[in-house]
Amino acid sequence: MMKKVFLAFTAFGLLSAGLWGASSVFSLSPQAAFATEIEPVAGAAADAKPVEPWGKRCSEETGHCEIVQRLTVQETGKRFAEFAIGYPDDADGARGVVILPLGVLLEPGVRMQIDDGQVYQFTFRYCGAGGCVAVIRLSDALIAEMKKGNAATIQFMSAKGQKINVPITLKGFTKAIRDVAKG
């Protein structure tokens, strides 16, 4: 049976995987091992609420904020993938965190493409009970490309060698990133 994945957009009170440094905490939901039967569905974004797909989450402790887009498995509501972007104090620009399910093939890393443009390659930093994490630096040029784009595709390989494409809508990205960008 194929499990359908749809975009669910939520805001959280905690920040991702050390995006802001050691004082940050991110509670990763336990995930079952990745099954190759999961099929991301690009057209399912129409089912998502609210209308603006980029949520914002801030740390009460530090006041730092980031934007986030989360994909969940429709039947269970559990996270399948997540993409968060913020501007940490210890970085010159934006930094992103991509969290993917367990069972990914680590060596090929993660690829991201905006519309039909250039493909960007990123490596995984670590895997834990909640998934595999890639921390990525986002140049001003890449942020500008995302602002102009309609969609991004995050691509990775399952441990069985299956290519998995995860659609990320860029609708509302420009407004959302402006809300968290440094001065």
Molecular structure report:
With 183 residues, the protein is mainly beta. The protein has one domain (3-180): Immunoglobulin-like (Sandwich). The protein has two helices and twelve strands. It has helices spanning 140-148, 173-180, and strands at 3-8, 38-40, 55-58, 65-73, 79-86, 94-100, 110-114, 119-122, 126-128, 131-138, 151-157, 163-169. β11 and β12 (163-169) form a beta hairpin. The longest helix is centred in the last third of the chain and has 9 residues, at 140-148. The radius of gyration is 15 Å and the shape is globular. Residues 1-51 have low confidence and may be disordered.
Shape: globular
Share of residues in helices: under 10%
Mean pLDDT: 75
The top-level CATH class is Mainly Beta
Number of helices: 2
Reading the helices and strands in chain order gives EEEEEEEEEEHEEH
Distance between the termini: 49 Å
Query: From the coordinates shown, what is the CATH architecture?
Result: Sandwich
| Number of strand segments | 12
Radius of gyration, in Å, reads 15 Å
The CATH topology corresponds to: Immunoglobulin-like
Task: Assign the CATH superfamily.
Answer: Invasion associated locus B (IalB) protein
Count of distinct structural domains: 1
Estimated structural class: mainly beta
Strand percentage, roughly? 35-45%
Biggest sheet overview: 8 strands, mixed
Low-confidence stretches: 1-51
